[in-house]
């Protein structure tokens, strides 16, 4: 009698699309065994949310085994009392539940809210983070204050993270997140560590047609504009600098609000050349011929006096 009522209730849930939670009691090659009141139900592997068509057979069995004794949300997709067949879908139930949770989060969340989520996908442009029913996107520019070439450099699948909500687009059902805004901003105190004219040393991180970026500290980069290279104006930055190359440059501009630091290689080289020219010894002027001097340093006038006496004597004889 009670089992008959369970079948009737299962048929009603199938018609109304109701979601029920059942405990996983076992598994086989085809999927999961679950218990719904006094009826044993079945969840095909194709209807298990965490499995997909490309999952290897061994990995599939391991995943099914891990779910034993868990309570999972299910949706009835087939009721056949005569064949004693009650089939559920976890995938449909999860999608339905996530849809409801997403609407709730879109309604409740506000920019500035800080929440905890779990990384579930990494792409070239950012990381999707599960907020408990809805995914939010942390763009690659919002992962860290330092340059990030790919999200996997700072995050991993399954990692739990704290994020701040930066944008809610309810019409497009999108949630923008940031990890960076919960980290200390090194640009806030940049003036305390650097000043104009200071020399800094670091590796080149990126070379572009307009210049090269140099990592001054972990999350601070400066730009050497093409005009500030120590090279011919027609030379391309990539012909002078390469990523990873260590350089020493001079700070020529610093903008804390715009988070920009300008660097110069040309001015460092010019100063070094000027210093080299200044330190070179000057050539000595050639000495002019001097008249013979006496032992005490006076000019010896005897030869001139003798010539004058001879000329006087000759004049008298004439």
CATH homologous superfamily grouping of the largest domain: Nucleic acid-binding proteins
Return the structural class.
alpha+beta
Low-pLDDT windows of residues: 288-318
Q: Kindly state the mean pLDDT as a whole number?
A: 86
General shape: elongated
Largest sheet: 5 strands, antiparallel
As laid out across the biggest beta sheet, the strand order is 3-2-1-4-5
Helix content: 25-40%
State the end-to-end CA separation.
176 Å
CATH topology term of the largest domain: OB fold (Dihydrolipoamide Acetyltransferase, E2P)
Number of helices: 7
How does this structure look, described?
With 318 residues, the chain is α+β, with helices and mostly antiparallel strands. It has 3 domains: 2-91, OB fold (Dihydrolipoamide Acetyltransferase, E2P) (Beta Barrel), CATH 2.40.50.140; 109-182, Beta Barrel (OB fold (Dihydrolipoamide Acetyltransferase, E2P)), CATH 2.40.50.140; 187-276, Beta Barrel (OB fold (Dihydrolipoamide Acetyltransferase, E2P)), CATH 2.40.50.140. 26% of the residues lie in helices and 35% in strands. The protein contains 7 helices and 15 strands. It has helices at residues 2-16, 57-66, 90-108, 190-193, 237-240, 266-279, 302-317; strands spanning 19-28, 31-36, 39-44, 71-80, 85-89, 114-123, 126-130, 135-139, 160-169, 174-178, 199-208, 211-217, 220-225, 246-255, 260-264. The strands form 3 sheets. The protein has a 5-stranded antiparallel beta sheet. Strands 6-7-8-10-9 form a 5-stranded mixed β-barrel. It is elongated and about 115 Å long. The model is unreliable at 288-318 (pLDDT under 50).
């Amino acid at each position: 009698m009670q089992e008959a009522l369970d079948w009737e209730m299962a048929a009603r849930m199938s018609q109304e699309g109701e979601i029920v939670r059942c405990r996983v009691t076992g598994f086989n090659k085809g999927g999961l065994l679950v218990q719904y009141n006094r009826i044993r139900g079945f969840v095909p592997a194709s209807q298990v949310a965490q499995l997909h068509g490309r999952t290897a057979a061994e990995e599939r069995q391991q995943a099914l085994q891990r779910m034993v004794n868990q309570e999972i949300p299910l949706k009835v997709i087939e009721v056949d009392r005569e064949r004693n067949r009650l089939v559920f879908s976890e995938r449909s139930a999860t999608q339905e539940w996530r849809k409801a949770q997403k609407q709730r989060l879109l309604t409740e969340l506000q920019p500035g809210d800080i929440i905890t989520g779990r990384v579930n996908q990494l792409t070239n442009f950012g990381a999707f983070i599960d907020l408990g029913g809805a995914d939010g996107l942390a763009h690659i520019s919002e992962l860290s204050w330092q340059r990030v070439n790919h999200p996997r450099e700072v995050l991993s699948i399954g990692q739990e993270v704290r994020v701040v909500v930066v944008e809610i687009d309810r019409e497009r059902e999108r949630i923008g997140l940031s990890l960076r805004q919960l980290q200390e901003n090194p640009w806030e105190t940049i003036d305390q560590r650097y000043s104009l004219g200071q020399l800094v040393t670091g590796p080149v991180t990126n070379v572009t047609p307009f210049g090269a970026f140099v990592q001054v500290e972990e999350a601070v980069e400066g730009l050497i504009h093409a005009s500030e290279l120590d090279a011919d104006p027609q030379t391309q930055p990539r012909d002078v600098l390469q990523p990873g190359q260590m350089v020493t440059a001079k700070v020529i501009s610093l903008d804390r609000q715009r988070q920009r630091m300008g660097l110069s290689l040309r001015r460092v080289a010019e100063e070094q050349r000027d210093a080299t020219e200044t330190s070179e010894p000057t050539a000595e002027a050639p000495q002019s011929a001097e008249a013979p001097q006496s032992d005490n340093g006076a000019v010896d006038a005897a030869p001139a006096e003798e010539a004058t006496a001879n000329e006087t004597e000759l004049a008298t004889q004439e």
